[in-house]
Amino acid sequence: MYQGDALAVLRELPAATVDAVITDPPYNSGGRTMSDRTKASARGKYVSGDACHDLADFTGDNRDQRSYIAWLSLVLAECLRVSRPGAHCLVFTDWRQLPATSDALQVGGWTWQGTVVWHKPVARPRRGGFKANAEFILWGTNGPYDGKRDLYLPGVFSASQPSGRQRRHITQKPVDGLMRELVKVCAPGGTILDPFAGSGSTGEAALHEGYDFVGIELSEHYQRVARQRLDEVAASSAVDH
């Protein structure tokens, strides 16, 4: 687990050393207007007023649309550099940033292979319209990938965000039912990179499924949370064996 800016740390990593990039970057979304998206805090945008937790805020979520595409393109280009040929890249996004994120994925040099849906069972209805209870995972590869591998993953996953003591991050993704399934796209025994590691959900899933993990997190607080969480998983695995 590295603590620092993703782009700066990625530039220090050796080329062609990871087999998958699975990451949940700051969406820079969450508002109806440009002012809402660029001036509100992450807590203000993504946490409802009646939430029962006091999780730490995070920075890097106030870019406008054009700077978001440029910034994410640079990050994903560096991810491509450190990935081996045939590596997979999975990038989370929401409906507002889906077009921008697909642009960044392709500008970064990845071959766009499809879009996976994360269905969130618990979501508030929207009066007069449709409930926003899905987020998306863009799937790309570093050139051709192993299409002969005996692996068949679904295109839709349904899993709720963690709650109670298991909730450690504002935008935390569920490990069971989602992350542990997504990491399986990585080649067996490979290394998974997450340049926006947050509280370590990708890393926890990777370790549970037998992969090595490299994480980068800008927030010093969340880097400590992730490191502690991954240490707990590693210690538990050692006891099991």
TrEMBL record:
It is an enzyme of class 2 (transferase). Its EC number is 2.1.1.-. InterPro entries: DNA_methylase_N4/N6, DNA_methylase_N6_adenine_CS, RM_Methyltransferase, SAM-dependent_MTases_sf. GO terms for biological process: methylation. One of its GO terms (cellular component) is cytoplasm. GO terms for molecular function: DNA binding; N-methyltransferase activity; site-specific DNA-methyltransferase (adenine-specific) activity. Coiled coil: none annotated. Residues 18-227 form the DNA methylase N-4/N-6 domain. SUPFAM superfamilies: S-adenosyl-L-methionine-dependent methyltransferases. Keywords: Methyltransferase, Transferase. Belongs to the N(4)/N(6)-methyltransferase family. This is Methyltransferase.
